[in-house]
Amino acid sequence: MMGYISYFKIRFIHGLQYRAAALAGIATQLAWGFMYIMLYETFYKTNPKVAPMNFNQLSSYIWLQQAFLALFMTWFLDNDLFDLITSGNVAYELVRPLNLYNAWYVKNCAVRISKAVLRCLPILIIAFLLPSPYKFLLPQNFMTALVFILTMVLGFLVVVAYCMFIYIISFFTISPMGVRMVFVMAADFLSGGLVPLPFLPEWLTKFIYITPFAAMQNVPFRIYSGDIAIKNSLYPIILQFVWLIILVIVGKFIMCRALKKVIVQGG
């Protein structure tokens, strides 16, 4: 366990060094946040009666999405791991006294958290200072804040477990690009990364809500904004736990099979 903790610290501290990139990311994500809010404002003015979320809830959802982009976006992948797999340098990883799945999982968590730490507070502070209804609102009560933190941690862990599948399947392909595109595009749409899930047709969302995609950013952001009431949060929290366990177990099983068949430099 101490080995994984040390590995996490090293990768976390390494990620904090990229402060210029963080400043550029803050500016970019603020711009995207304003763009999304202006886009939805037009929609709300055109069809105010059919909107599934009130505008204040939507604004908080969007600002949370931009502030914690590094935590929940599946396209935020570690290219170093793909290079290890395609170049054969994964052999150096295999000789370390660490479980490869656990080490890569910890590394992904550290890299994502380090980038989110540098960006989230400035974005949320600026968004909080905006006029209503465009501003980022504080949680309705203390219980909402606690449930939000719990679901955000679970959703983040589900995202990392899902992304591990992209790295693992790359062992079986010549190039990881096709796998990346399929997995990322599916998750972006079905997790509410492009459009919040309440805006999608009900016949579609009733299936999405039982998939691992709905257990990602959809649950914590909608709980914080008040779109999911605290009294209705138990079921999605249980699903988050279930999908986290399933994804980790299946991921470890597939990686074990992949490592038994992996060939490095012909040996």
In short:
By secondary structure, this protein is mainly alpha-helical. Helix content is 70%, strand content 0%. Helix 2 (19-46) packs across helix 7 (100-128).
Would you kindly provide a written description of the structure presented here, covering whatever features stand out?
The chain has one domain (2-261). The relative contact order is 0.14. The chain is built from 12 helices and no strands. The mean pLDDT is 87. The chain has 267 residues and is mostly helical.
Brief descriptors of the model:
globular, 267 residues, 12 helices, mainly alpha
How many β-strand runs?
A: 0
Largest sheet: none
Radius of gyration, in Å, reads: 19 Å
Measured as a percent range, the helix fraction is over 70%
Overall morphology: globular
User: Which strand-content bin applies to the residues?
Assistant: under 5%
Q: Which SSEs are present, and which pair or pack?
A:
Elements lengths: L1 H14 L3 H28 L8 H13 L1 H4 L6 H9 L2 H5 L5 H29 L13 H28 L7 H14 L11 H7 L9 H8 L8 H28 L6
Helix pairs in contact: 1-7, 2-3, 2-7, 3-7, 3-11, 7-8, 8-11, 8-12
